[in-house]
Amino acid sequence: MTPAKKKTTAKRLAKKPAKKAAKKKATAKRATKKTPKRNTATNNGGPRRKVPSPYLPEILETLAKTYPDAHCELDYTSPFELLIATILSAQCTDVRVNIVTKTLFAKYRGPADYLEVPVEELEEDIRTTGFFRSKTKNIRSACQTILDKHDGEVPETMEELNALGGVGRKTANVVLGNAFGKPAGVVVDTHVRRICNKLALTNQEDPVKIERELNKLVPEEHWTMFPHWVIWHGRRVCKARTPQCDDCTLYAYCPTRA
Ligand code: SF4
Q: Domain 79-179 belongs to what topology?
């Protein structure tokens, strides 16, 4: 072998491990690369799923036109009653809550009343809304804080509401938006989570993350009404098990239409 040939062979041999390592690296990179979430729902010839949907203005306009009378479906006559009704509405229908609060609000007029009766009595009074033990605990804790720190009045800030027992962002947003007209964000309940995913306004599942995204997308002036529109849509048309896509005013903007 001539010295020149020897040199080329040595070079080739030296390159081999480097090539092998690069190949290995590329394979590993491919393997760790996140596979994008597949949209398994059929879009039935509808718009491609792009998050956030470019149709937000159309969706807002259509919802506003479709549900001009949308409102909170819980019955209440004061911020305090709305707070109690919203606590009771966890894992319960508004219809059931309204049945319970009809007699509850006649018996318990203010925060002190919920603390004066024995725990078992309050539990019994709200039993049919489900999770009555934890709801009783939350109601009593909220009432105690309202009396101790807020002179018996429901506070008007997210921070203070969150500090009441068992009051999360959803309940606080319901009270702030509907009772005080000062929404701190979009209410995210099960309908809002489900339908906003369907409409590609978000691809999050966690309510806090969804709220954060919607607060950026939805203009502040619609923060209170947007969830009502979506909830009404979820109850009347885009039902979880049987969405009525053929009768849906959002059909043209929905990438998961059936
Ligand atoms: S009813 Fe159908 S078309 Fe309308 S939002 Fe729901 S999935 Fe989309």
A: Endonuclease III; domain 1 (1.10.340)
| Cβ-count burial 26-63 (b if 16+ within 10 Å, e if not) | eeeeeeeeeeeeeeeeeeeebbebebbbebbeebbebb
Q: Is 199 helix (H, G, I), strand (E, B) or coil?
A: coil
**Rounded mean pLDDT of 174-181?**
98
| Rounded distance from Cα 226 to ligand 1 centre (Å) | 16
Does residue 11 carry a pLDDT above 60?
no
- What number does CATH give the domain 56-70+187-253? 1.10.1670.10
Residues 150, 156, 158, 161, CA torsion sign? positive
Task: Give yes or no for residue 234 CB within 6 A of ligand 1.
Answer: no
Among 42, 15, 30, smallest CA distance to 198 is for 42
Judge if the beta carbon of residue 237 lies within 6 A of ligand 1: yes
Residue 208 Cα to ligand 1 midpoint, Å, equals 23
Q: How far is CA 254 from CA 46, 116, 257, in A?
A: 6, 51, 6
Tell me, in angstroms, the distance from the centre of ligand 1 to residue 211's CA.
Answer: 21
pLDDT of residue 109: 97
**What amino acid positions are annotated as catalytic residues?**
170, 189
Residue 122, H or E segment = helix 119-126
Cα–Cα–Cα angle for 138, 134, 205, rounded to 5 degrees: 90
Report pLDDT for 17.
53
Ligand 1 atom nearest to 248, measured from its CA: 4
Q: What is the mean pLDDT of residues 172-190?
A: 97
pLDDT at 202 over 60: yes
Strands (DSSP E) along the chain, which ranges?
none
